[in-house]
Amino acid sequence: MVNPSSDRTRNAVRRGALGLALALPLLTSLPARAQAEADSDQSSEEQIQLEDALTGDNGDNSEPQSVEVDAFEGVQEATVAGEDERPAQPRVLITEVMIDGIDGHPEQERVELAAYDAMTVRPGSRVTRDELKVDLEAIYATGWFSDVRIEPVNGPLGVQLFVQVVPNPVLTKVELLPENNEIPPQVIEDTFSSDYGRTLNLAELQLRMKELQTWYTSEGYALARVTGPTRVSPDGVVQLKVVLGTVAGVEVQFLNKEGETTNEKGEPIRGKTKPWVVTREISIKPGEAFNRNQLEGDIKRLYGTSLFSDVKVTLKPVAGNPGEVNIVLGIVEQSTGSLSGGLGYSQSQGVFGQVQLQDSNLFGRAWNVALNLTYGQYGGLANVTFTDPWIKGDAHRTSFRTSLFLSREVPQVFRSQNNGDIVTLTDYEDNKSSRAYSISKTNNPAGRKFDNVGDASALFPDDSWFDYEGDSVALQRVGGNIIFARPLNGGNPYKNAPWQVLAGLNVQSVRPINFEGSSRVYGTSSKGNGDIPNEDVICISYNCATENNLAGLRLAATYNTLNDPRNPTSGNFFSFGTEQFLSVGENSPTFNRVKASYTQFFPVNWLKIAKGCRPKPGEKANCPQAIGIQLKAGSIVGDLPPYEAFCLGGSNSVRGWYDCDLAVGRSYGEATLEYRFPIISIFAGEIFADAGTDFGSQSSVPGKPGKLLKKPGSGFSIGTGVIVTTPVGPLRLEVASQDFTGEWRFNLGVGWKF
User: Fold this and answer.
1) 121-148 per-position pLDDT tens digit
2) Fold of 6-167
């Protein structure tokens, strides 16, 4: 029978119960503790108490009164290991089993049943001392008690067993020390909320600690360990210890392609890259907790520099400092110098060839310097650029870029696919007449040809005269720029900041020329003849000067939440920029240009042509498709050079028109709706609709080149295309209509339109 008695509680305390503090070592090895208490020959009070309980000594030196109790005293444990050689232990009859020490406990019945149910001994059982030791271990193992003692006492009919227990307190709070343990308080609350207000169970506490350990592991704290408890207060506050594992430092080792740290001479391999270029990409600083997830992000950034072909990570423990590690980065550098070339075609340059010499790790400082030479059917470019992707020591990850360039191009502003081009005039004299006459034609007031414009103007001073050359208008630009870009990361260079700002200065000299390089400041339509309206002779440059000097200050900001930089399916992108040009001389215009764009993607799952759109059970879907919307607008205020006007039409504008064939305006607006979907392997499809307008601003562009070339000013197109993923990026083959007129344009472009 179970017979709890408050009177026996007093006796349990008198017998020398160790109390709650002695229960702490039992958390990790309850059975081992119980065995040590029974078998050790040390003279500690705890061990003496356990031996007394098992031999029938009740603490008052009184002689046992029954044979059953005396039988415990005469038993000596064998010293040999073989179980068969151990002398048989005497058995005694147990008449009562009583649980003491739980009177007044909030969960008295619960803990009483837990102790009793853990025992195999029952009234009427005949047991040995070893069997009592097994029950002692079992009661400890329940986790409900901080101390347990079994005291056999002589009774009139046999032996009475008094199980003296000290229940754990009611759990009220769990604290993790130290306080900088990285775990949110809510996680602790959620883990232990179901246990608060209940008796602390040490076995269940271990399970909860494993849950905390799992959280640390899932969050990347691979070295973190949760131990304890280090303290359990009488009012139920449990303290646990967290050892996170900290980073002592970051070391850089350079490896060869075989992964070796030394060369054939046994010397350490020396890399080109400065070690600080590597370590600055590591967000985990000395003294901070090691986090595997954080380090993986750092390694991705290292690969993103394109300086390294492989990065191997090793954690090296710090001698004498348990819990500290050094992160050792094994770096395999890749070649950063390159010489490349190729052939291509564009509408602005026709057939062209390109050669590029580049080094993306100049002086081992991750500086990028490149020389680009391009020569084509309609122009050429020589460009030297220098880029520092992260100015050393800058907490905001500010980048710097500068370039010097010399270019010759045939601007699309002065060209048309169907209505001719604006071509050069050798000479022109404006006498404010309504019409202008060519000196090389006879349909003029004189009825004959002239050798030069001066002779014709001298004879007919009331008429305007020009000398038609007929070359395509070209522009020569010489200049340079400086640009600083900074993400708005609050001084955290590793933060993924959606906002980025840019500031720059652009200076250039622009000369209108012919193909031979001679200055040509006037032009007219190639479809004109010897007798044209005088207003159809236009200035190519600002102020009809042989050279314009442009000096502009540029400010811009972008906001980017796209989920994929190459083929996004969700998120948005917003950009806004303004460029203020200031006069630095008579032929230097003052004007302001402002542009803005907004792009939004919505994920859909309509067409399921690709295999990845029809995954089998257990397979992960791979079906990137989305609806994309883009809106763009811009305007120019001030003294606008005609070659700086906005162009509408082309592969990155309204796709049913060739480049700049829709409009040449001072203002513009565009809208695109596009559906993208995968087809098979590297092939994807698109269906789109584009629309654009100049808002009637073609007439406000000096010279009205758009009106002269009969560009419509506004229009829309619908079309479809196939996109092929290549090593250099997506390649687009598209076909689009013009206003449902039956005019279809085929387009070949690189990269998505937006």
Assistant:
1) 899 889 888 888 999 999 989 999 989 9
2) Ubiquitin-like (UB roll) (3.10.20)
